[in-house]
Amino acid sequence: MKKELALELKHITKTFGNVVANHDVSLDVYKGEILAILGENGCGKTTLMNMISGIYFPDEGEIFVDGKPVIIRSPKDAFRYKIGMVHQHFKLVDIFTAGENIVLGDSEKKRFNLNDVNNRVAEITERYGFTVDPQKKIYEMSVSEKQTVEIIKVLYRNADILILDEPTAVLTPQETRNLFEVLRNMRADGKSIIIITHKLHEVLEISDRVAVLRKGEHIATVDTKDATESSLTEMMVGQKISLNIERTEPKNSVVRLKVEGLSATDDEGLKVLDNISFEARSGEILGIAGIAGSGQRELLEAIAGLYPLNEGDIIYNNPKTGDTVDLRNKTPLQIRNLGVRLSFVPEDRLGMGLVGNMNITDNMMLRSYRRGKSMFVDRARPKALASEIIESLQVNTPGVSTEVRKLSGGNVQKVLVGREIAAAPTVLMVAYPVRGLDINSSYTIYNLLNKQKESGVSVIFVGEDLDVLLELCDRIVVINSGRITGICDGRTVTKEEVGLLMTKSHEEEREVKSNE
Amino acid sequence: MSKAHIEKEPLFHITKRDDMPILNKAAVRVIAVVLALMICMLLSYILIGINPIKMLSSMISGSFGSKRRIWKFLKDLAVLLCISLAVTPAFRMKFWNIGAEGQALIGALASVACIINLGGKIPNALLLVIMFVSSVVIGAVWGVIPAVCKALWNTNETLFTLMMNYIATFIVSYFLMIWTPSGSSSLGMLSHGYLPKVGHEYFLLILVVAILTVGLYVYLNYSKHGYEISVVGESQKTALYIGINVKKVIIRTMTISGALCGLAGFLIVSALDHSVTTATIGGQGFTAIMVSWLAKFNPISMALTSFLITFLDQGSSQISTDFNIDSAFPSVIVGIIIFFIIGCEFFIYYKINFRHKAAKEAK
Q1: A48 and A25 in one domain?
Q2: A355 lies within 8 A of chain B by CB
Q3: What's the total number of domains in chain A?
């Protein structure tokens, strides 16, 4: 069967300042197919899709729809060419119903009748196998329902080309299966679907072809049936990953931090941490694995004194004095004043760990500016530290007085990790330390963590890449929806076992327990 | 689907620039000022037939035409700069204090109250000290009330400080009624509490503001407090992360900001007005916001921006005297110039890519 082209991109380039987000990308999408766009964080997937859906305008290159060159200047233009995008962060009005959100901004008719709208929505849902109640308000909906509304919104506007940006990131496995079923129905109906993801098994399960992007460039498009997880990974990262992170046996390991029964709720009163207990030992790397948003951020912030706890204790054993202190609900300053040497590399590097508008020296000073009795700050030492970190970690920067926001992601991270390690911690918490970093920078970070471990620091590592967690960590705590579903030995556990612990829902877990 | 739609690349699109070299930045600003002046001259020629060159020279002579005018210029500059400096610590913290008007006015009122109640009864030097302390304290109180509410209940500081202005104005009206039994509500020049004359009568005022400028520059850039203010202003999350007590910093900084406004009120009373009315500050509390912003919250550059604003102000009133035109027209001119100066920042941070140029590059 000869397939018809739906969308062609030719030599698309987009830069932001001196950052090249996409370089000379050419891509074809056929009618009635599901094309997966695969790539690491920050490889330009979303930017590329935003250009198709009219959010950005390409610096160079052309876009063809049905073989005709088109200029897409706004999402409205995109809809005229029957292109619709479902963004990672939903764009819905909370206090409106699903039906009202679906017609919102649809300027085709001057007047509309909500009953007609609901009928059409019903028709669409029936055709593709959705379930949604058009009368339900958005704020009463689950994430998956909201996503459904977004997809229907696009279909309601007669989109033939649908772009889904990481649709499964927020879904449970069951919901993901339902979504895929719907996508297959749409494909059978002749729609073109572009799905952005970085989950390999999903790519293999759902897509017909895979386009791989790496550092803003289009590496290749292959038929999914010819691809395997390892061949795709190889294209994504550029070389076959034999991580080979060295892992030494922990020496003289003692309990440094004991977390007991932590529970916390978010602003809306939902439980984000549910009875979390574990021990972090000196001289080991403790990994924390879980799907994004399972409570990792809240857990680390609670230990650092930044997230209020409802219950539980955080017991710290001071290696110098042998005393134990409870860090529960203390402020970061109180924790420091207790003599606890806790360093924390947060997930939000420029929003929490560093100040983007300050230069490297002033960012070094964040930890040390209080030193001394003088009312003036001492910039000599932070400056020396900045130069030292730039040299030892090979930070690519014009100098110490360059503002941190102007550095690339990897260099920002080196500055942050360098500063936190320079504080000579006994506990070092790092959240997604290699996110957005290239392979070389990632290894620099792994080596730094290993060195800290060897010098007796208790390292707590929150990661998203299971391969890395399995090769780097001595023990792995798996959390799922704010609860611990398992604590495994990093040397013996398999990727599948951890993956299962990460994804099983509470119901499944209960079943497993009752079966035992 | 409307086929009639013209499917062309947009005429231009806007992209963010990399950092511009300092010289280019200066050039953009100079070009903006020159363009603004040219448009103003053209406009005045077309609309009211004034010779543009004469207009320009009238403007300059308004500020620097005579020794007296130069001193007056420096005095006005000093007062405006003083209030601009006062709002700056809060602005660096991204606390939008638009209550400088009220904080300075209530400070001026405190000084006048001291003169009325103590004038002639105690030595002048002691009176001045008491005036200074009460102005600074009441200014600080006026600043700290919205800060406490912000720190404790996260109230909106912009609305709060704005409302505090009206309260200050009406308190002044109230006291004026009490102090003028005739009911005229106009106090007249008081005869006590004069700042001593060192050289020229304005010299001491100018000196105090000059010292304050340097002092505040050092405080904001080299002290631990100044560093904390910057961190809180950039990111409260980072401030919490490194253990800065954000509430304390907000309250402390607004105390300083309010106290400096109070100081401005004291200076206005003791060195210039020797009286108070509801119009004593005359909107300079709001002009100061612009001065501070234009200087990117840098006290040293603030001397330049208040120079510019004062120059425009005096120049425009000179134009209206010299050519006998309504003061509205000079205000239009000031507006145009400020529009250009602020507008040119856009070209420093963004660049515009035109369609044909992009097409050429593609080839």
Answers
A1: yes
A2: yes
A3: 3
- Cα A74 to Cα A54: distance, rounded to the nearest angstrom: 4
Residue of B nearest to A59 (CA): B358
Cα dihedral value A78, A79, A82, A83, nearest 10: 50
CATH number at residue A158: 3.40.50.300
Distances A115 to A106, A120, A124, B13 between C-alpha atoms, Å: 16, 9, 14, 41
Q: Which of B20, B231, B241, B363 to mutate to test the interface with A (most CBs of A within 10 A)?
A: B241
B-chain CB neighbours of A306 within 8 Å are 240-241
Q: Which residue of B has its CA nearest to A364?
A: B242
Which pLDDT score, from 0 to 100, does residue B215 have?
97
Distance, in Å, from the CA atom of A182 to the CA atom of A164, rounded to the nearest integer, reads 13
Q: How close A354 comes to chain B (CA, Å)?
A: 7
Final residue in a domain of this structure, among A179, A203, A237:
A237
Same domain, residue pair A377 and A446 = no
Q: Do A230 and A372 fall into the same domain?
A: no
**Could you read off the pLDDT of B250-288 as tens digits, one per residue?**
999 999 999 999 999 999 999 999 999 999 998 999 999
Q: Are residues A157 and A180 in the same domain?
A: yes
Q: Are residues A98 and A190 in the same domain?
A: yes
Nearest 5°: the CA angle B262, B266, B270 is 175
Q: Which pLDDT value is given to residue A436?
A: 67
Residue A42 has pLDDT above 70, yes or no: no
pLDDT for A386-433, tens place per residue? 999 999 888 888 889 889 988 877 789 899 999 999 999 999 999 988
Do A17 and B16 count as a contact with CB atoms less than 8 A apart?
yes
Minimum Cα–Cα distance from B350: chain A residue: A17
Q: Which residues contact A318 (CB under 8 A, 6 or more apart)?
A: A324, A325, A339, A340
The tokens describing A236, both together, are 């994504």
pLDDT value at position B1? Answer: 41
Q: Does A332 share its domain with A377? A: no
Residue pair B255/B146 in contact by the 8 Å Cβ criterion: no
Query: What CA–CA distance (Å, rounded) separates A260 from A278?
Result: 7
Contacts of residue B26, defined as CB under 8 A and 6 or more positions apart, other chains included, come to: none
The answer to whether residue A347 is domain-embedded is no
Low-confidence stretches of chain B (pLDDT < 50) are: 1-6, 358, 362-363
Question: Is residue A263 situated within a structural domain?
Answer: yes
Domain of A22 in residue numbering reads as: 5-237
- Beta-carbon contacts below 8 Å between A and B: 87
Which of B7, B228, B348 is the mutation pick for testing A, counting most A CBs within 10 A? B7
pLDDT confidence of residue A508 = 45
H-type alpha helices, A338-408: 360-368, 380-392
Cβ atoms of B16 and B324 within 8 Å: the answer is no
Q: How close B244 gets to chain A, by Cα (Å)?
A: 7
Cβ of A106 under 8 Å from any chain B Cβ? Answer: no
Under the phi-then-psi rule, with left for phi > 0, alpha for psi from -120 to 50, and beta for the rest, what region is A223?
Answer: beta
Judged by a CB distance cut-off of 8 A, whether residue A55 touches chain B is no
Domain B51-56+63-322 fold is ABC transporter involved in vitamin B12 uptake, BtuC (1.10.3470)
Closest CA of chain B from A63, distance in Å = 12
Q: In chain B, which residues have their Cβ closer than 8 Å to the Cβ of A353?
A: 238, 241
Nearest CA in chain B to A304: B241
Nearest residue to A355 via CA among B223, B224, B235: B235
Instruction: Give the integer Cα–Cα distance in Å for A122 and A109.
Output: 19
Top residue of A74, A352, A402 to mutate, by most chain B CBs within 10 Å, is A352
Q: What are the Cα distances from residue B214, in Å, to A498, B85, B154, B207?
A: 61, 10, 32, 11
Question: Which helix H or strand E contains A32, and what residues bound it?
Answer: none
